[in-house]
Amino acid sequence: VTQECYVQNTAREYAKVYAAEAEPLEGFGEVPEIIPIFLVHRPANNIPYATVEEELVGEFVKYSVKDGKEVNFLRRDSEAGQKCCTFQHWVYEKTSGSLLVTDLQGVGMKLTDVGIATQAKGYKGFKGNCSVSFIEQFRALHQCNKYCEMLGLKPLRTTHQKQRKATASKSKSLASSSAMKKAVPKKAREPRDFISAEH
After folding, report:
1. What is the pLDDT of residues 77-124, one digit of tens each?
2. HEC string of 44-60?
3. What is the set of domains in the chain, with CATH numbers?
4. For FRET with 186, which of 32, 72, 93, 141 sits at 20 to 30 Å CA-CA?
5. Cα separation, 72 vs 174, whole angstroms
6. Positions marked catalytic
7. Whole-structure pTM value
8. CB burial class (10 A; 0-12, 13-18, 19+) of residue 92?
Protein backbone atom coordinates (compact mmCIF):
# COMPACT_ATOMS: atom_id res chain seq x y z
CA VAL A 1 0.00 0.00 0.00
CA THR A 2 2.82 2.43 0.79
CA GLN A 3 4.42 1.66 -2.62
CA GLU A 4 1.07 2.39 -4.33
CA CYS A 5 0.89 5.81 -2.65
CA TYR A 6 4.55 6.51 -3.37
CA VAL A 7 4.20 5.69 -7.08
CA GLN A 8 0.93 7.54 -7.70
CA ASN A 9 1.95 10.67 -5.80
CA THR A 10 5.35 10.71 -7.56
CA ALA A 11 3.57 10.49 -10.93
CA ARG A 12 1.23 13.26 -9.73
CA GLU A 13 4.20 15.59 -9.18
CA TYR A 14 5.34 15.01 -12.78
CA ALA A 15 1.78 15.65 -13.98
CA LYS A 16 1.75 19.02 -12.17
CA VAL A 17 4.94 20.15 -13.94
CA TYR A 18 3.55 18.85 -17.27
CA ALA A 19 0.37 20.88 -16.69
CA ALA A 20 2.38 24.02 -15.87
CA GLU A 21 4.23 23.70 -19.20
CA ALA A 22 1.28 22.60 -21.36
CA GLU A 23 -1.64 24.74 -20.11
CA PRO A 24 -0.20 28.11 -21.22
CA LEU A 25 0.27 26.81 -24.80
CA GLU A 26 -2.33 28.18 -27.21
CA GLY A 27 -4.85 25.50 -28.15
CA PHE A 28 -3.58 22.87 -25.70
CA GLY A 29 -6.59 23.12 -23.38
CA GLU A 30 -7.26 20.96 -20.32
CA VAL A 31 -4.42 18.77 -19.04
CA PRO A 32 -4.84 15.31 -17.45
CA GLU A 33 -4.56 15.28 -13.65
CA ILE A 34 -3.43 12.36 -11.48
CA ILE A 35 -5.53 12.46 -8.33
CA PRO A 36 -3.77 12.22 -4.94
CA ILE A 37 -3.89 8.99 -2.94
CA PHE A 38 -3.57 9.00 0.88
CA LEU A 39 -2.30 6.36 3.26
CA VAL A 40 -4.50 5.89 6.32
CA HIS A 41 -3.37 4.15 9.54
CA ARG A 42 -6.12 2.28 11.40
CA PRO A 43 -4.44 0.65 14.45
CA ALA A 44 -7.64 -0.98 15.77
CA ASN A 45 -8.47 -2.60 12.42
CA ASN A 46 -7.46 -6.09 11.18
CA ILE A 47 -5.97 -4.35 8.14
CA PRO A 48 -4.06 -1.49 9.79
CA TYR A 49 -3.22 0.41 6.58
CA ALA A 50 -5.52 1.47 3.76
CA THR A 51 -5.51 3.97 0.91
CA VAL A 52 -8.10 6.66 0.37
CA GLU A 53 -8.70 8.66 -2.79
CA GLU A 54 -11.44 10.60 -4.54
CA GLU A 55 -14.14 8.45 -6.13
CA LEU A 56 -14.22 8.85 -9.91
CA VAL A 57 -17.74 8.61 -11.34
CA GLY A 58 -18.28 7.92 -15.04
CA GLU A 59 -16.78 5.73 -17.77
CA PHE A 60 -13.44 4.34 -16.58
CA VAL A 61 -10.97 4.12 -19.48
CA LYS A 62 -7.42 2.75 -19.74
CA TYR A 63 -5.49 5.30 -21.82
CA SER A 64 -2.25 3.34 -21.69
CA VAL A 65 -1.43 -0.20 -20.71
CA LYS A 66 1.55 -1.67 -18.95
CA ASP A 67 2.68 -3.87 -21.81
CA GLY A 68 1.86 -1.45 -24.63
CA LYS A 69 0.30 -4.20 -26.79
CA GLU A 70 -3.41 -3.54 -26.33
CA VAL A 71 -5.10 -1.59 -29.11
CA ASN A 72 -7.26 1.03 -27.45
CA PHE A 73 -9.14 3.40 -29.73
CA LEU A 74 -10.04 5.77 -26.89
CA ARG A 75 -6.34 6.07 -26.12
CA ARG A 76 -5.51 6.84 -29.74
CA ASP A 77 -8.50 8.93 -30.76
CA SER A 78 -9.77 10.76 -27.66
CA GLU A 79 -8.35 14.07 -26.47
CA ALA A 80 -7.64 12.65 -23.01
CA GLY A 81 -5.96 9.59 -24.55
CA GLN A 82 -3.71 11.67 -26.81
CA LYS A 83 -2.76 13.98 -23.94
CA CYS A 84 -1.91 10.96 -21.77
CA CYS A 85 0.38 9.61 -24.51
CA THR A 86 1.99 13.05 -24.75
CA PHE A 87 2.43 13.09 -20.96
CA GLN A 88 4.25 9.74 -21.19
CA HIS A 89 6.47 11.11 -23.97
CA TRP A 90 7.13 14.32 -21.98
CA VAL A 91 8.18 12.38 -18.83
CA TYR A 92 10.33 10.05 -20.93
CA GLU A 93 12.14 13.02 -22.51
CA LYS A 94 12.34 14.97 -19.22
CA THR A 95 14.10 12.04 -17.52
CA SER A 96 16.33 11.19 -20.54
CA GLY A 97 14.49 7.90 -21.05
CA SER A 98 15.00 6.76 -17.44
CA LEU A 99 11.39 6.92 -16.24
CA LEU A 100 7.96 6.33 -17.77
CA VAL A 101 4.51 6.76 -16.23
CA THR A 102 2.43 3.74 -17.26
CA ASP A 103 -1.11 2.44 -16.79
CA LEU A 104 -2.72 5.85 -17.23
CA GLN A 105 -6.41 5.28 -16.56
CA GLY A 106 -9.39 7.07 -15.14
CA VAL A 107 -12.50 9.07 -15.98
CA GLY A 108 -12.01 11.86 -18.50
CA MET A 109 -8.94 13.87 -17.51
CA LYS A 110 -8.84 12.52 -13.92
CA LEU A 111 -6.42 9.62 -13.59
CA THR A 112 -5.71 7.06 -10.88
CA ASP A 113 -3.99 3.73 -10.20
CA VAL A 114 -1.00 4.59 -12.39
CA GLY A 115 2.34 2.76 -12.52
CA ILE A 116 5.93 3.85 -13.09
CA ALA A 117 8.68 2.02 -14.94
CA THR A 118 12.32 3.01 -14.41
CA GLN A 119 15.59 1.75 -15.80
CA ALA A 120 17.05 -1.08 -13.66
CA LYS A 121 19.19 1.32 -11.59
CA GLY A 122 16.17 3.53 -10.89
CA TYR A 123 15.99 7.29 -11.37
CA LYS A 124 17.27 9.76 -8.75
CA GLY A 125 16.91 7.15 -6.01
CA PHE A 126 13.38 6.20 -7.11
CA LYS A 127 12.50 2.71 -8.38
CA GLY A 128 9.22 2.10 -10.17
CA ASN A 129 6.81 -0.82 -9.80
CA CYS A 130 6.80 -1.85 -13.48
CA SER A 131 9.31 -3.68 -15.67
CA VAL A 132 11.91 -1.75 -17.67
CA SER A 133 10.51 -3.53 -20.77
CA PHE A 134 7.57 -1.07 -20.69
CA ILE A 135 10.04 1.74 -21.45
CA GLU A 136 11.44 -0.18 -24.43
CA GLN A 137 7.95 -0.96 -25.74
CA PHE A 138 6.82 2.64 -25.32
CA ARG A 139 9.87 3.84 -27.28
CA ALA A 140 9.03 1.38 -30.09
CA LEU A 141 5.24 1.89 -30.19
CA HIS A 142 4.60 5.56 -29.34
CA GLN A 143 3.19 7.63 -32.18
CA CYS A 144 3.50 11.38 -31.70
CA ASN A 145 0.33 13.46 -31.95
CA LYS A 146 -0.39 17.20 -32.20
CA TYR A 147 0.10 17.67 -28.43
CA CYS A 148 3.62 16.19 -28.64
CA GLU A 149 4.31 18.70 -31.43
CA MET A 150 2.90 21.61 -29.38
CA LEU A 151 5.33 20.76 -26.56
CA GLY A 152 8.22 20.43 -29.05
CA LEU A 153 8.92 16.79 -28.11
CA LYS A 154 11.38 14.92 -30.32
CA PRO A 155 9.98 11.92 -32.26
CA LEU A 156 11.13 8.63 -30.73
CA ARG A 157 11.29 6.64 -33.96
CA THR A 158 13.71 8.74 -36.01
CA THR A 159 15.66 5.68 -37.20
CA HIS A 160 12.57 4.13 -38.82
CA GLN A 161 11.60 7.47 -40.36
CA LYS A 162 15.07 7.89 -41.89
CA GLN A 163 14.88 4.35 -43.32
CA ARG A 164 11.49 5.09 -44.84
CA LYS A 165 12.68 8.37 -46.42
CA ALA A 166 15.78 6.69 -47.84
CA THR A 167 13.68 3.87 -49.31
CA ALA A 168 11.15 6.35 -50.73
CA SER A 169 13.84 8.44 -52.46
CA LYS A 170 15.40 5.27 -53.94
CA SER A 171 12.02 4.25 -55.35
CA LYS A 172 11.47 7.69 -56.93
CA SER A 173 14.81 7.69 -58.74
CA LEU A 174 14.25 4.13 -59.95
CA ALA A 175 10.67 4.77 -61.06
CA SER A 176 11.90 6.80 -64.08
CA SER A 177 12.79 3.61 -65.95
CA SER A 178 10.60 0.52 -65.92
CA ALA A 179 13.59 -1.65 -66.80
CA MET A 180 15.43 -0.35 -63.73
CA LYS A 181 12.31 -0.81 -61.64
CA LYS A 182 12.39 -4.54 -62.40
CA ALA A 183 16.03 -4.64 -61.36
CA VAL A 184 15.31 -3.39 -57.81
CA PRO A 185 16.34 -6.21 -55.47
CA LYS A 186 13.51 -7.44 -53.25
CA LYS A 187 15.48 -6.64 -50.09
CA ALA A 188 15.50 -2.91 -50.86
CA ARG A 189 11.71 -2.84 -50.63
CA GLU A 190 11.41 -4.79 -47.36
CA PRO A 191 12.08 -1.94 -44.89
CA ARG A 192 9.29 0.12 -46.46
CA ASP A 193 6.85 -2.80 -46.36
CA PHE A 194 7.72 -3.38 -42.69
CA ILE A 195 7.14 0.27 -41.80
CA SER A 196 3.82 0.59 -43.61
CA ALA A 197 2.63 -2.54 -41.82
CA GLU A 198 3.64 -0.98 -38.53
CA HIS A 199 1.27 1.94 -38.97
Report:
1. 789 999 999 999 999 999 999 999 999 999 999 999 999 999 988 999
2. CCCCCEEEEECCCCCCC
3. 1-151 (3.20.200.10)
4. 141
5. 39
6. 103
7. 0.75
8. buried
